[in-house]
Amino acid sequence: MTNVLTVHNPYTGEVVGEVPCCHVDDLNRRVETAALGAAEMRTTTLHERRRMLAASAGRLMEHRAELSALLTSESGKTIRETRAEVERAASIFELAAAELVGPTGDVLALDALPNGAGMLGYCMREPRGVIGAITPWNVPLALAAHKIAPALAAGNSVVLKPAEQTPLSSLLMCKLLVEAGIPGNALVVCTGLGEEVGAAVVRHPGIAMVSFTGSREVGVALPAAAGFKKVSLELGGNSPLVVTPSANLEAAAVAIVRGAFAVAGQLCISVQRVIAHRSVMANLVSLVSAATSRLVVGDPASEATNVGTLISSEACQRVERLVDDLRLAGAQVLTGGNRLGDCVYQPTVLAAVVRDHPAVHQEAFGPIVMFITYDQFSEAVQIANSTEYGLNAAIWTTNHDEAMEGARLLQAGTVIINESTTFRSDLMPYGGIKQSGMGREGVRFAMEEMSVYKTVCFGKPAQSVY
Ligand code: NAP
After folding, report:
1. For the chain, what are the domain ranges?
2. Which of 50, 272, 388, 421 is the most buried (most CB within 10 A)?
């Protein structure tokens, strides 16, 4: 039984650091600590929470360089991507602080029904208790912030189980948050293996809610394992982006390249399937191919790099197999299609992709973009929806009716008009339908999920009913 997890730099192969590999006993102790933290947080005033959340944002920004360098070395994401991620994490704490100003409940006009004559009520939100936060390796700081900040703002405590490939930056972030004033008992990290401590977080009776972000394969089994607790799931996707004849092709091409190759395509909302009208396909593919071939690929620590590494050699091999399968089925590799190192794969543009190939329906989670042709708008919608996922979808058009139809018919948690599928604002409700998840994040919406309504009813002055 190992007691240490070694973290490697996927680009250099060097050891970046070690963290404890906790086991179930360790988790149990941390949940006991977090239960004390939950009791502490419940009694804090909103003003105190606001102050600690705002101070957290400031503290993260002060340590932006250190956090981003560490995250780049353990994840293979480019330094520009990780710097932006630290800024985003800080801004999520700011948003959570801002959510605490203003109304937090509703007044109930109970006398609108006969049994409430003379009565008045109100409802307010109460914290759930200990929130179990399980996070993936690919956006570890911002996605942990999306759980920690709303959980604390709503008066809960948190046990965070970060992904085994990228725990170092999460540990550093949580240390900084505690230094900024978050009670140590209210934010506890438990590093270890998902199949052991992650699974134990899900089952633990002392945890009131599990907030999970990760793959569909892991997430799908969690509600049954969680028993009588709230579960929110942010899972994978294989986002479609529809390009209609009226679209601004130059702008669409820029958005496709940005959305397909950010984080080397390892985002749940990466642009994976471009469904383009036959009349614009040749122009669009040529614009995307040309821009893709100009991307600088490789050393994530270099300021010049646009596309960093995949997370592991296995991930790179999986992407290689996926491209080979599609190529064998008739797809044309217009750019890329080669492995450049143990964990580095060339950004790859695949044209004439067979729309029903099983690989099209999987989550590619790599630097690949697939082009599929359509003739009728209804056909584009049908292709876009022909997947078990439903996270983000985009439509590029200057035709108002098509935009409205796309918004209505595309099966997705978010439909984006004339932007990349990777667009996400941290203040909007965000999450999936179908097998992309259940529940919503985005600070205000996560706060709602992480709290419960308590209703208070004031009776009318004492009257005898007899
Ligand atoms: P993953 O393998 O599902 O792991 C996610 C987390 O779950 C990790 O902390 C992992 O621990 C833990 N885990 C593994 N087995 C578990 C179990 N049986 N019970 C409880 N927890 C368990 O996902 P990943 O490879 O880190 O991340 C990539 C996936 O996340 C992609 O599918 C991507 O689309 C998805 N994602 C979704 C969103 C969204 O907002 N919808 C955002 C980002 C990523 P270990 O690391 O120790 O295995």
Report:
1. 4-235+437-455, 239-417
2. 421
Q: Is 163 in the pocket of ligand 1 (CB under 6 A)?
A: yes
Considering the candidates 190, 268, 316, 343, report the single residue annotated as catalytic: 268
| SS3 labels along 230-263 | EEEEECCCCCEEEECCCCCHHHHHHHHHHHHHHH
Q: pLDDT digit of tens for each residue in the chain (466 aa)?
A: 789 999 999 999 999 999 999 999 999 999 999 999 999 999 999 999 999 999 999 999 999 999 999 999 999 999 999 999 999 999 999 999 999 998 788 999 999 999 999 899 999 999 999 999 999 999 999 999 999 999 999 999 999 999 999 999 999 999 999 999 999 999 999 999 999 999 999 999 999 999 999 999 999 999 999 999 999 999 999 999 999 999 999 999 999 999 999 999 999 999 999 999 999 999 999 999 999 999 999 999 999 999 999 999 999 999 999 999 999 999 999 999 999 999 999 999 999 999 999 999 999 999 999 999 999 999 999 999 999 999 999 999 999 999 999 999 999 999 999 999 999 999 999 999 999 999 999 999 999 999 999 999 999 766 655 6
Nearest Cα to Cα of residue 274 among 137, 391, 369, 397: 369
Please report where in the chains the tokens 């690989």 appear, as a residue: 359
Q: What's the 210 CA to ligand 1 centre distance in angstroms?
A: 13
- Please indicate, yes or no, whether the overall pTM of this predicted structure exceeds 0.85: yes
Q: Which of 74, 81, 85, 234 is catalytic?
A: 234
Concatenating the DSSP letter of every residue in 359-391 gives: HHHS---SSEEEEEEESSHHHHHHHHH-SS--S
Residue 229 near residue 203 (C-beta atoms within 8 A): no
The CATH topology of domain 239-417 is: Aldehyde Dehydrogenase; Chain A, domain 2 (3.40.309)
Contact 85, 414 (CB under 8 A): no
Q: Is there a catalytic annotation at residue 234?
A: yes
The verdict on the CB of residue 409 being under 6 Å from ligand 1 is no
Alpha helices in 113-264 (DSSP H): 140-153, 167-179, 199-203, 216-219, 222-226, 249-261
Rg (CA), the chain: 24
Q: Domain 4-235+437-455 carries which CATH code?
A: 3.40.605.10
User: Largest alpha-carbon pair distance within the chain?
Assistant: 86
- Of 247, 263, 217, 221, whose CA–CA distance to 424 is shortest? 263
Q: Which residues contact 32 (CB under 8 A, 6 or more apart)?
A: 206
Q: How many CA atoms lie within 13 A of 216 on its CB side?
A: 20
